[in-house]
Amino acid sequence: MKKYVILVAGGSGSRMKSEIPKQFLSFGGKAVLSHTIDRFYHFDKEIKIIVVLPESSLSYWNDLVIANPPPCPITIAKGGNTRSDSSRSGLSLVPKDVLVAIHDAVRPMLSTALIKRCFDVAEKHGNACPGIIPVDSLRKKENDLSIAVNRSEYFQVQTPQCFQSSLIKAAFEKTVDNGFTDETSLFEKAGHKIHLVEGDRWNIKITFPEDLLVAEALSSKIY
Q: What is the C-alpha separation between 63 and 57, in angstroms, rounded?
């Protein structure tokens, strides 16, 4: 099946303490978003890449294209007020008979092996969600108490979350946006079973200033 990826790039730089949106901050001589695009292009040079951006970020994108042209044509979709709105906008540009990954644009360290795992499982089972078991102990807050929980029963959810496009498009048409922060939550709400796949601890989400330092250190190790 043909493959598409939607890179949701609606984040701000507030927690990065930067006026520049975090997807346009640089490490290793390139913007975070450029690294992410390169990862998917390296995986499959025929993949169709859609970047979802708010209007306020278009000038940054235009500057990026001039300074560091992407390796393939990129389609730009307009971002929405919520994560679901932005994903919906990207999905409107995706056909119904393909595989589609929806990925945080600020996760630039994903490996080819991770992308392949997610697409392979989605082609077989309809969807795939990467996750990792927490290494820290966990406690659950209940009213004024905190209760220890078994961390082996929990997963930290990552992206790319992959789907057969006809299924995820139908789920978006069926399900009201209730503040979902990832696509598998909405997909599950629409009545589907989620298929977990092994994630990658290097697949970090650039959120705080120190994350750029980690990404810089890892940039020569991810393939």
A: 10
Amino acid at 156: Q
Question: Is-contact 88 172, C-beta < 8 A?
Answer: yes
Q: How many C-alpha atoms does 192 have within 13 Å on its Cβ side?
A: 27
Ranges of each domain in the chain: 3-218
Q: Map tokens 């951006």 to a residue.
A: 53
Q: Which of the 8 DSSP states describes residue 57?
A: G
Peptide bond preceding 69 in cis form (omega within 30 of 0)? no
Which residue matches tokens 């006026």?
19
Task: Evaluate whether 218 touches 109 at the Cβ level (below 8 Å).
Answer: yes
3-218 carries CATH number 3.40.50.740? no
Q: What is the pLDDT of residues 51-106, one digit of tens each?
A: 999 999 999 999 999 999 999 999 999 999 899 999 999 999 999 999 999 999 99
Q: Give the pLDDT of residue 92.
A: 97
pLDDT in tens, 173-189: 998 877 899 999 999 99
Of the candidates 83, 7, 88, 18, the residue with the CA atom closest to the CA atom of residue 50: 7
Distance CA 162, CA 24 (A): 24
